[in-house]
What does this fold into?
Amino acid sequence: MDILVILFLVFLGIVLLLIEFAILPGVTVAGIGGLLMLGAAVYLAFKSYGTVAGIIALLFVLIVSPILVYRMFKTRMGKKMMLDSKITGTSSEIKAETVRIGDEGITVSRLAPIGKVRVGGEIVEAKSTGNFIDQHTKVKIIGILRTQIIVEPIN
It folds into this structure.
């Protein structure tokens, strides 16, 4: 009877760890519960069947369980659960000849604190000095970074 309990605890521990990795990422009840189930299985193996069985259970939990979890994510079903998209977007650098400190522009979107500004016919990403700036507000460039400009509203 004890061997069935041990096997059930190992199985349940692996299932809870799979739930932790695939459905509820982070440190949740499923992950902690899975580790506790695996630990309880090893403890029961030591207590009920002695040192040799306990070491076998411990090695199974430490070696075979991670391999099973890894192999599960390599299957077709496991790959469907994992995010497999690539971000290919880039940000273009601001050209110094088109935008200069002191130039004036108008906000295309609300800067909260980052948004878009039209300066000299070109739309660039801008960052306010900390305050929100509404759409269609005149702004002045007070700084230029590689991919965005820093602006403040003109009163």
